[in-house]
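Re: that backbone. Tokens:
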């Protein structure tokens, strides 16, 4: 038995695992409850015979955040996973041709000049300098706690105020550097990481393409799901216990105070603190007894803004193609494509899509000479009332046709050995993603910082949040930060040393 405070973490996703690592290293009695047989949640994997696919994230940006988490726990990330820098980072395919993007400025500018001779490649230098200034001011804001309205007056945020770019969209912000529309698109498609259109995404997020170009993009051998596997092992090395195949039914409450969790099998697990790493809106609807919430009732949750969803095709092929590791294929009418999604329509005959082919980088995900392809198509979330059982085959066939046309994969259908589709319906039903909104709550200013659900949950005592639905937001690096913030708040409350000093 231990006298250390007991922590229950609902879900072994990247935020929950970050918190588990930090808290176990700080001496807490940590228990993680995961409904699947493997860690990761959407940072887990799907196995199709000999083919392995990441379920969700495939880009590892800001590798230094992951390195810091391991270092704070007295560990070296390289002892738990093999990281590979990608060069080029990705290929962007337009109807006129493609451009390859690197974390080496001169290579990127040369690639841009070949495809778009009129592009203002010198604007790249202005972009890099200005967005470095923005990142240096804004990143500290993402590492703070915003559980009090007074936190909006913190020195880091006041210093960053000019960098927030309230008055411009991401697309318009990139117009400060590039006049050519397709060059702007090349530096704004990253708004898809937030599930938003660059014409709607706040200009402050121009720092996202900057961090790609400044710090590079990495792959993890075996797939990015190996990050979760490595984090789980690291947490267990410090004494954390991970209970697989053990779903949580609900939180145990005594009034507004959380005293533990009830498991699906009826067992009750008492805990001093509870961290929720489940999808935020799903957790509010399913894990908390009815009538206990005022701010996040089902009706109020429904009215919030949510990201788009994704239509997924996972394929195992008995052939390899000449593809880059990451390829983004833009719709011929890109703005119209995004407008269709925003209006709740499937962008028939004008969809953009993304293909990850890690097979030539990574020998662990498919047999020799074979490929494990991950295909993602942004689509409306389930607010849009689309009949996916009727429409999914049609969209799949159109995307396969575009892969033949745009990526020269003319014989692909002859080589499909395994295939699986995930629609917004399955994201909600099988993966507990509210409305199938795979990037969680929207990232408009009214749902950021203090106005996003707090890491120290405001409606219940002894409850903390990690994941894309809380501060700082979606995306692996920011989800790691959510886990670090929640862990630091718990350490501070119990007077224990923690790797991350918390502000706010």
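Recovered sequence:
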């Amino acid at each position: 038995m231990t006298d250390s405070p007991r922590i229950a973490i609902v879900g072994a996703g990247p935020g929950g695992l970050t918190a588990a690592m930090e808290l176990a290293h700080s001496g807490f009695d940590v228990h993680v409850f995961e409904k699947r047989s493997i860690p990761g949640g959407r940072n887990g994997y799907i196995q199709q015979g000999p083919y392995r696919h990441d379920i969700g994230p495939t880009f590892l940006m800001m590798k230094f955040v992951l390195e810091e988490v391991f270092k704070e726990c007295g560990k070296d990330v390289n002892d738990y996973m093999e990281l590979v820098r990608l060069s080029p980072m990705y290929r962007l395919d337009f109807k006129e041709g493609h451009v390859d993007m690197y974390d080496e400025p001169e290579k990127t500018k040369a690639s841009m000049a070949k495809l778009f001779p009129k592009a203002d490649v010198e604007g790249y230098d202005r972009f890099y300098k200005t967005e470095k200034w923005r990142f240096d001011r804004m990143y500290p804001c993402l590492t703070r706690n915003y559980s009090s309205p007074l936190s909006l007056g913190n020195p880091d945020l006041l210093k960053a105020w000019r960098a927030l770019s309230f008055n411009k969209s991401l697309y318009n912000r990139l117009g400060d550097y590039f006049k050519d529309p397709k060059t702007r698109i090349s530096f704004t498609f990253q708004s898809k990481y937030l599930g938003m259109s660059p014409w709607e995404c706040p200009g402050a997020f121009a720092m996202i393409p900057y961090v790609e170009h400044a710090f590079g993009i990495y792959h993890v051998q075996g797939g990015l799901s190996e990050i979760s596997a490595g984090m789980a092992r690291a947490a267990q090395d410090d004494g954390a216990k991970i209970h697989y195949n053990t779903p949580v039914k609900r939180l145990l409450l005594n009034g507004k105070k959380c005293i533990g969790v009830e498991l699906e099998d009826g067992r009750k697990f008492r805990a001093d603190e509870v961290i929720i790493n489940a999808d935020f809106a799903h957790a509010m609807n399913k894990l908390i007894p009815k009538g206990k919430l005022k701010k996040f009732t089902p009706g109020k949750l429904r009215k919030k803004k949510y990201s788009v969803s994704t239509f997924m095709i996972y394929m195992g092929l008995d052939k390899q193609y000449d593809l880059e590791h990451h390829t983004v294929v833009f719709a011929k009418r890109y703005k119209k494509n995004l407008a269709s999604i925003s209006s709740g329509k499937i962008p028939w005959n004008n969809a953009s899509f993304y293909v990850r082919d890690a097979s030539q980088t990574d020998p662990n995900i498919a047999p020799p000479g074979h490929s494990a392809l991950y295909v993602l198509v942004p689509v409306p979330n389930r607010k849009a009332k689309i009949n996916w059982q009727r429409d999914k085959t049609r969209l799949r066939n159109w995307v396969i046709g575009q892969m033949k046309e745009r990526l020269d994969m003319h014989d692909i259908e002859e080589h499909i050995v395994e295939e699986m589709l995930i629609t917004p319906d399955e994201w909600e039903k099988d993966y507990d993603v509210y409305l199938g909104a795979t990037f969680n709550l929207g990232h408009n200013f009214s749902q950021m910082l203090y106005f996003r659900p707090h890491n120290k949950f405001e409606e219940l005592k002894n409850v903390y949040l990690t994941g894309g639905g809380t501060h700082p937001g979606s995306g692996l690096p920011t989800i790691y930060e959510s886990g670090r913030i929640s862990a630091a708040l718990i350490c501070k409350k119990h007077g224990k040393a923690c790797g991350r000093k918390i502000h706010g």
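The mean pLDDT is 92. Residues 123-142 form the longest helix (20 residues).
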